[in-house]
Amino acid sequence: MTPDWIGAFVIGLVGAGHCVGMCGGIASMLSIGQSQPSKLIPLFYNLGRLTSYAIIGALVGGAVSSISEVGQLNNVLVWLRIAAAIFMILLACYIGRWWHGLVYIEKLGQTLWKFISPAGHSLLPLKSPVHAIPFGFVWGWLPCGLVYSTLTWSAVSGSAANGALVMLAFGLGTLPAMLLVGHSANFLNKLKNNVIFRHIVALALLTYGIYTGYGAFTILSMT
């Protein structure tokens, strides 16, 4: 287990409130046309969502590592690590509620989402609980600053497998809240609004971001 996996899991866990807020209307959409909504639908939906995260992470991690190996572009990896460090710092500011600049980056994905979202809506109403898997897979591409931030870690993970595991760790962090939206809502709200807890996580992430950026700049200065 690497620090990046742990960090990605913590981001998912702490940022789960953001995920629930963005996907809050999904539960009602999934129940459309269901006389007796199955309890398996949330499980299948999240299975599809986590699968999409893992595939996205694998594609990004594999593509970047392959390009760097073929072209021997070590400096590109260093600059990507600097970009990842910047995203960590932005995410720390977002979690700490010091600055919400990450929201502007999130909006950049809206253009792509306009072309992807119709595929998800075409699956409604669900013909069976199993159809929640492809629906969740499509919804995994919903523009999200937390996903984008974690994806930069996948880019510098070194391989498709590591890229997938980073994104999977993030998805697993969001899973408890997404499976227990109704039951855990009060607890999550208290947790994410707890100033001490929120600042501890934000400061830890900020420290890791600065450490990552410092390491990358050190390598860059030696080349």
Automatic annotation (TrEMBL):
Segments passing through the bilayer: 6-31, 43-64, 76-95, 132-151, 163-188, 200-220
Tell me where on the tree of life, at the top rank, the source sits. Bacteria
Q: Which InterPro entries match?
A: UreH-like_TM_dom (IPR039447)
The entry's protein name is: Cytochrome biogenesis protein
Which positions fall inside the Urease accessory protein UreH-like transmembrane domain?
8-211
On whether Hydrolase is a keyword of this UniProt record, the answer is no
Q: Which UniProt keywords apply?
A: Membrane, Transmembrane, Transmembrane helix
Q: Name one Pfam family in it.
A: DsbD_2
